[in-house]
Amino acid sequence: MSAPPRGVSRAVPGSVRRTATRLADGRELLYFDDSEPYVSGGATRELVDRRDLAPVRRSTRMRRDPLTGDWVAIAAHRMTRTHLPPADLCPLCPSGTGREPGEVPADDYDVAVFENRFPSFSGEPGEADPVDGDPLWPQRAAAGRCEVVCFTAEHSSAFADLGPRRARTVVEAWADRTAELSALPGVEQVFCFENRGEEIGVTLHHPHGQVYAYPFVTPRTEALLRRAAAHRAATGGNLLRDVLDAERAAGSRMVLSGQAWSAYVPAAARWPVEVHLAPHRDVADLAELDDAERDELAHVYLDLLRRMDRFFDGVERLPYIAGWHQAPVRRDRALGRLHLQLFSVLRAPGKLKYLAGSESGMAAWVNDTAPEAVAARLREVAEQGTAG
């Protein structure tokens, strides 16, 4: 699927304008604007990247593990990616006067999305080429796409610091990218996610997330689909919907409930702090959300992130991973259902949950915290935040 030509601009739902251009090496850059004069089209962000960059020619491969059937991407070029640069050299900050040119050439932006310079998946589908010519180790192009989503131009900010209007713009960007990347040849699943905190392994401090368009259905989703298929065969129901309904009925692990969304700590949570957020209506992915659901999501998601930051006394910014699980693109969509998994590796202030022998070696999880206690704490900190 080719990108729009430079400077193409169009309005999208939620009072947002989307403008597409190209970076100097040919990668696509998209601005999602909710502020004037840009949202009305009265002005346009900077569309010319003046850096002297050679065209991108990334070639990533993936190999199939014969013991598990999982695909593993081989992307050696990622060893040279930018790692925790000082603020004045951050490639995600606007490239204003006096700054080292970065990935966004404008002096300012609302939300910006661009193709990752160091992708795990890239290019077009290709023919299989077994490792050493042996069919025991299938190998093929790791076709797909990896994008970076910059939530704000403010380097020292965080998603939780955004207002509802800007959070709504990010939701529009997620939905837009989910729809467009799902249409790319060979893409089987789209995953929007954010890693925050050095404890998680971030390489850039600027508030940002990523979108991966995979050339396969991921192992976690494959496992979910198997369970969902068995559940449907046994009960006729949708597993993810039935879990949401059961959590709402039980109540002990509920964190919040709105008109269109509910959040709960799963009964078999694996991580020290973990919460799932799901829409009340059955939808396969972010692109299927209607305007009312997107509006409420902007508020509810900010609420959850702020509760996470208040979870531990003395921890200002909780390290976390936030990932949107979406139905596969081309098969079993009726078995999938949109939901967010938000979790932290911090088990106490200054203490991390390390995946030791049982979890890392055997995928046999042990959680040192009770899900009901985590849910109670997330309800408690909301009350503290309101009182303050």
From TrEMBL:
Domain Galactose-1-phosphate uridyl transferase C-terminal, chain residue ranges per copy: 233-381
User: What cellular-component terms does GO give this entry?
Assistant: cytoplasm
Pfam families membership: GalP_UDP_tr_C (PF02744), GalP_UDP_transf (PF01087)
Q: List, from the UniProt record, the residues annotated as the active site of this protein.
A: 208 (tele-ump-histidine intermediate)
In this chain, Zn(2+) is annotated as bound at 90, 93, 155, 206
The family line of this record is: Belongs to the galactose-1-phosphate uridylyltransferase type 1 family.
Q: What is the name listed in the Swiss-Prot or TrEMBL entry for this protein?
A: Galactose-1-phosphate uridylyltransferase
Give the species this sequence originates from. Actinorugispora endophytica
